[in-house]
Amino acid sequence: MDALPQKNMNVSYAVIDNFVMRTSAVGVEQEWRRRANEMSAEYKLRELDYLENYLRKHGIKYERIDKYGEDYDRHQLIVYNDTGEIVWDAICNRGSYGYSESLLEIYGTIVRPCGDSVEGWLTADDVIERIENE
User: Fold this and answer.
1) CA separation, residue 93 to residues 25, 56, 114 (Å)
2) Which domain holds residue 21?
């Protein structure tokens, strides 16, 4: 790797994948978002896959929906109660809260009271904790 440039107090430096980038704080965030959007689908869905494995192992009724389109990806786990009613769901879609960081957004009975019907930026472990405390 090339030597770091001389430090300038008005410029910030970021190391992204062993690449030193001279940029502003906004530029760093934009670069992270760009790279997050370029990640493979396998990486993007790791939290959803982990949650699905938990549901399967614990015999919780669910359905997984994966749809791909030109302008969207839709990945959703829908959880049902014993009578077949939807109880809650988890998504990882473009536009969902947390998608750029591969995190989950949930809707339904496991959402903590927060003044909104959805809650985002959650890991699979966050969702599992709520399931176990229900």
Assistant:
1) 26, 21, 21
2) 1-38
pLDDT digits (tens, 9 = 90+) for 32-84: 556 655 555 556 688 999 999 999 999 999 999 988 877 677 899 999 999 99
Residues 124 and 64 in one domain: yes
Q: Over the stretch 105-121, which tens digit does the pLDDT of each residue have? A: 999 999 888 767 899 99
**Number of compact structural domains in the chain:** 2
Give the span between the Cα atoms of 60 and 67, in whole angstroms. Answer: 22
Model confidence pTM above 0.85: no
Q: What is the residue type of 67? A: K
Phi, psi of 22 (to 5 degrees): -90, 115
Rounded Cα distance between 17 and 79, Å, is 37
Based on the domain organization, do 53 and 90 belong to the same domain? yes
28 with 46, same domain: the answer is: no
**Helix, strand, coil percentages, rounded to 5, for the chain:** 30, 30, 35
